[in-house]
Design brief:
With 434 residues, the chain is α/β, with parallel strands linked by helices. It contains 16 helices and twelve strands.
Length: 434
């Protein structure tokens, strides 16, 4: 019988130190691992170094740059490090532009950035990689980041693919919205949802004649809007946006932009005010003002340069005095409070708006009509499961949710999360409006 103590007295050898001929030998590929480790360190440290020497990342994609994650998020902290580092890499926009130039010059086609199945946008809009989206058909739908349409028009690939990637059916989305409505109204507050229609919904005539998922997109779009337009707390702006475009002689969505122009912001303001107080706009005058030009967001996503043009407007709530004033459109500032408007045709009780990037064009007009207004970006929900958002709504007598069609149709909207809803509803219930 062998004494096991003889073996325990021997020094332990790691498998990488065993002779290569040994059955348990396992090479560690040390040089490759060191190279991977160095690359990882450079990827995560370079944004910090660039900040230290004064280089600042720019928000060329019309969305929040991913914030540095909080350690309080637990294991998800590590999952959020990669998108933070990617967003804050110096010269990122130039790299995208170079990639687009090479793709167009060498292959004669716009670039397509790879993704994973079921990938969703990291915000209202953003760098939306080409992805495979499961559709209600046998074959998956694949779309590029930006889909070229007719006559130079561009469409966001995600807004088309999102309709074929519903995380939950439209009936469940409606049920969750009703649940939130019931909780808010039980606290004595009003509740309104403004859905910003996708560009492909309001201006479909420039879509390519055919594209992957076309039938799925059309079917879900019809189903979604049929359901939403039947909800009396939902504002459906599609027909108003189309009518104003006909009056202007051009759609109210730019050919190379994914958002509505100022006309959408004015319509959102008027319809919301009328919903909260019918007849409030009886004395309003809405006058066109100076033209504006900005960089087109869809062109930037594929490394191109382009511009979007539009008109500023003025709202005179009493028909005489212009209370519209320029508001900085820094998307990162949230919540934002406005209280300088008063008089005939304005709305004085507190209104809290939970918004996405479509509200950027609406903010000057909302601030000209609502005299006690707080605007908070729904992206803030991610940080603390709705605690900050819930507290921001306590002083308000009305809760307004503005959300893009492409976000809501997937069913993955943060405000549909039962945990977030419970946080908001419980906070408002603890501070009822009497």
């Amino acid at each position: 019988m062998t004494d096991q103590r003889e073996h325990t007295d021997l020094p332990e050898l790691h498998e990488t130190w065993l002779p290569k001929e040994h059955a348990l030998y396992r090479p560690r590929h040390g040089s490759k691992q060191r190279l991977a480790l160095v690359c990882a360190v450079v990827f995560f440290v370079l944004p910090l170094v660039s900040l230290g020497i004064g280089l600042r990342p720019t928000e060329f994609e019309n969305r929040h740059l991913t914030a540095f994650p909080s350690p309080s998020q637990g294991w998800s902290f590590f999952g959020q490090l990669a998108p933070w580092a990617s967003d804050h890499l110096p010269f990122r926009q130039r790299v995208i532009s170079m990639g687009a130039w090479l793709s167009q010059g060498l292959f004669g086609e716009p670039p397509s950035y790879g993704g994973t199945s079921g990938q969703t946008a990291p915000g209202p809009i953003g760098p939306l990689p080409a992805a495979t989206y499961p559709a209600p058909v046998d074959q998956p739908v694949q779309l590029p980041t930006v889909l070229p349409g007719q006559d130079g028009w561009l469409y966001l690939g995600y807004e088309l693919a999102s309709h074929c990637d519903q995380g939950q059916p439209t009936s469940t989305i409606v049920a969750e919205l009703r649940r939130l409505r019931d909780g808010v109204t039980a606290s004595g507050r009003k509740f309104v949802v403004v859905i910003a229609p996708d560009k492909a919904t309001v201006v479909p005539q420039y879509l390519p004649a055919d594209f992957p998922g076309k039938a799925c997109h059309a079917a879900v779009t019809d189903q979604f809007w049929h359901a939403m337009s039947a909800e009396n707390y939902v504002l459906d702006l599609r027909s108003d946006l189309t009518a104003w475009g006909k009056q202007l002689g051009a759609p109210v969505y730019g050919p190379q932009d994914a958002h509505w122009s100022d006309e959408g912001g004015v319509l959102m303001t008027k319809r919301l005010a009328e919903k909260l107080r019918p007849g409030i706009s009886a004395h309003w005058r809405i006058e066109p003002g100076d033209a504006w030009t900005v960089g087109a967001d869809l062109a930037a996503l594929i490394g191109r340069t382009g511009t979007t043009t539009g008109l500023h407007y003025s709202i005179l709530p009493d028909g005489t005095h212009n209370q519209t004033y320029p508001v900085p459109t820094d998307y990162n500032i949230a919540p934002r409070f406005f209280d300088s408007t008063f008089g005939l045709g304005t709305y004085g009780p507190g209104v809290g708006v939970l918004a996405d990037s479509f509200t950027i064009r609406a903010t000057p007009y909302l601030a000209s009509v609502f005299g006690n207004l707080t605007i908070t970006q729904t992206t803030d929900v991610d940080h603390d499961h709705g605690v900050t958002v819930a507290r921001s709504l306590v002083p308000d007598t009305a809760v307004v949710v503005e959300v893009a069609e492409r976000t809501l149709v997937t069913g993955r909207f943060d405000l549909l999360d039962p945990q977030v809803q419970n946080t908001i509803v419980n906070e408002l219930a603890a501070h009822p409006i009497r």
